[in-house]
Predict the structure of Phosphonate ABC transporter ATP-binding protein.
Amino acid sequence: MLSLKSLTKTYRTGDKALVSVDIDIPNGQVVALIGPSGAGKSTLIRCINRLVEPTSGQVLLDDVDVTALSSSGLRRERRRMGMIFQEYALVERLTVMENVLSGRLGYVGFWRSFLRKYPQSDIDEAFRLLDRVGLLAMADKRADELSGGQRQRVGICRALIQNPALLLVDEPTASLDPKTSRQIMRLICELCQERGLAAIINIHDVALAQMFVQRVIGLQSGAIRFDGPPDGLSPDVLTEIYGEEDWQATIRKDEDEDTEAAVA
Ligand SMILES: Nc1ncnc2c1ncn2[C@@H]1O[C@H](COP(=O)(O)OP(=O)(O)O)[C@@H](O)[C@H]1O
Ligand SMILES: [Mg+2]
């Protein structure tokens, strides 16, 4: 279980990015975090693994108080939190395999990681993951030879090889075309289900979020405006989160579901 208790972040500039946010996420649950640009989505994800230091409040992961950890304790705890980024954050000149294995850097010792000598069990697991996401044949390709969708699959493998308890995913599809976006969202959600992983997926595309998750949290100006099933995202709720718009056009309809099934 992940618990955020009165999580608050005020940047030095005075920007109140998070204002007393409370969220509980049970193990295995995938949550989409929606909201306009500047709502605080990235800040929230980064406060959980303390890439951004919260100003106040607590982050508890399975009763470990992440906010209270010293740097060595935090390093250990971060292994349990896999991260997936919008821009993939791969090392371009390294191979797909090396990029995936870099997810093990939190585990192997300094010299092993310096020499890039990974245990055979890590290499086997990397092959299994690449096979699972359909990239087995690309293992020796350099990251800069891949398409966006392929890069994000590598990013997913790199996060999963950490064997995390929680996935923190920041706009995974923002650089991808609509069809690839669906494939990547579906893949992330399937993998979470297979592995009983909890996840927070930041996503500004409401329709895409609604398609794949059972719980949506809407953030606006650093505060939660909605927390519930995707069906609860009425035009009024969306207006509160995003401002005035013609939301009927955005809200998922049953025909779209049929199209989705046909694509899959
Ligand atoms: N490093 C930073 N320094 C100062 N202000 C920041 C920083 N990062 C984000 N902010 C501000 O915090 C607010 C939330 O930003 P962010 O978490 O990036 O939102 P989102 O991911 O939803 O677009 C915005 O007002 C943004 O300008
Ligand atoms: Mg962001």
Remarks:
- The beta strands are 2-10, 16-25, 30-34, 56-61, 64-65, 81-84, 166-170, 198-202, 215-220, 223-228.
